[in-house]
Amino acid sequence: MAGTGQDVVVQQLDQDEPDLLRDQFRQLLRYRGMLALGVALGLLGGLWTGLVGGESYVASSELSVRQVTLDPFSTGSSQLNRDVMGTERQTAGSNSVADLAQQKLGGGQTEEQLLSGLQVTNPPNTLVLRFTYTSTDPETAAERANGFAQAYLDYRYAQNKKIVDNTAKSYDSQLQPLRDRRDSLLKDIEGGRLAGRALDQALSDKSSLEITMSQISAKKAEVVSIDPTSGRIFRAATAPSEPSGPGLLMVLFLGAAVGLGFGLVIAWVRLIFDPTARSTADVVRALRAPVLGTLPGQRRQGPLLAEGRTAEEYRSMAFRLAYDQRFADRRRLLVVAPRGRNDVPAAVSVNLAASFAEMGHEVLLIEADLRQPTLSARLSTADGVRPGWARTPARGDGGWPTGLQIPIDAGESGAFDLVPGTRVRNAARALTSASATQLIAEADAPGSVVVVVAPPVLSYADAIALTDRVDGVLVVCDPHEVRREDLERIRELIRGAGGTVLGAVLHSFGGAKDEEKSGGSGGNGRKKNGRGRQQDRRTPVSEPYGPPPAPRSGGDDGQGRQPGSRAGGRSASRSSSQ
């Protein structure tokens, strides 16, 4: 049972949704220039970083920090140290320590310059400070790491010593009044000036003063006995033998990776604002019609009648159209392009006509391009037996259609008739004339197919004028060149004219120069069946039919055929090739 094009469209869109990201990634690869530019910039940046930045050496020294207490072995001192390690780390990187390090190291470096290469860290759950210094010279890195570690210890020693001295002085200030009072009482007692109850009171006060003085002296002795050292260096820094950080190759690799990421971002932004169709899914969404086939990629367009893989693609398109109910009902097909040259649509129409003829249909190919007709000239050397007058059909004096039908030998595919286009003064009037309508209506005969090729839709209104007579439209385009808005406009124009977009054919041929070179090449690319051989363009072509007869209005065309009749077309081709 024949399917409809809308079902195919829905199926294609459903298949594209899960692969949307993969499709977008494939589209990003189209912008290879941007990706290559990003990689090149990344490599240059990595090279500049590796060469200008120079090699750096890192040296580290570690010291253990101890809390200055009366009893360093008392419980809780370690936990207290862990709580203050953040403060100690900030102190180690302060300007005060840097000042002491500057005095020890010398070298004319300022505090800011010395601190620029220093990093002080505290490994988790430890009482350790790690002094890491980075320099372009390994000896300097080791010397300054050790210098900062020793400067920190000296600074903390001086701070602790100052605290001990101040505490001792505070105790001395407390002892001095007590000594004076004791000496005064002692002088009264020894001088015999006191007696009785007064003497007893003086002796009691003297004893209390001596006890208090003894206690204060004991505390002072404890403070003075405190070791003000805040730690010790247990691992001194040594000069590193190799530079730290990634080497030049790694820097280049990282630069290339960053550049590639930058190129992908730029390509993605370019993709977002790219107005072209880009992919098959975009064409399907814009036309609301299936893609019937994709012509194999070539550098330039080949012979008009294809062979090999391209010919098989055309046969697949013809079978899909034959089983499409919308086409099978009327068997009329209008082949058009959005803009530009008409070479590829002409090739598509010729090969579809040959494929329909191979399926057993009586095919009539109508060249409705009345502005730049080329099919008769391009098919002139197709089978080697074309009469001379058929290569140059009558010009615009007799109007169009002129009643001339040329039998085309499609090799093993069979034969079909061609109604060549003719330059006329008023193309719109000729396309909408009664004779043109009658010619297209020949598809109503059983087993007949009419294929019409018209100028680009958005360049001329000729295709729109034919839409209501042909109904089924096949759009031929390059998704990398056509705009999505152009495809949407084509769909609206065709629907507004009463036609239906049956599908699209995608291709990716070369530029305009390649098309111009290939557009003038004649010849039939399909395999011959032994009835005729392709001749060299320099060899004169035989003319068994003689000169062209004068056209007759309402009569025959000089070959015994009425205008619009294709009877005897295939037999004429066969007899002429013998």
From TrEMBL:
Q: Does the keyword Coiled coil apply?
A: no
Among PANTHER family, the record links this protein to: CAPSULAR EXOPOLYSACCHARIDE FAMILY (PTHR32309:SF31), TYROSINE-PROTEIN KINASE (PTHR32309)
Q: Out of the domains of life, which is the source?
A: Bacteria
Spell out the SUPFAM superfamilies in the cross-references.
P-loop containing nucleoside triphosphate hydrolases
Q: Does the keyword DNA-binding apply?
A: no
Entry coiled-coil feature ranges: none
Membrane-traversing stretches: 31-51, 248-269
Q: What keywords would UniProt list here?
A: Membrane, Transmembrane, Transmembrane helix
Gene3D superfamilies linked to this entry:
P-loop containing nucleotide triphosphate hydrolases
Protein name per its UniProtKB record: Lipopolysaccharide biosynthesis protein
Region named Disordered: 511-578
Organism, scientific name? Streptomyces polyrhachis
Q: Where is the composition biased (Low complexity)?
A: 560-578
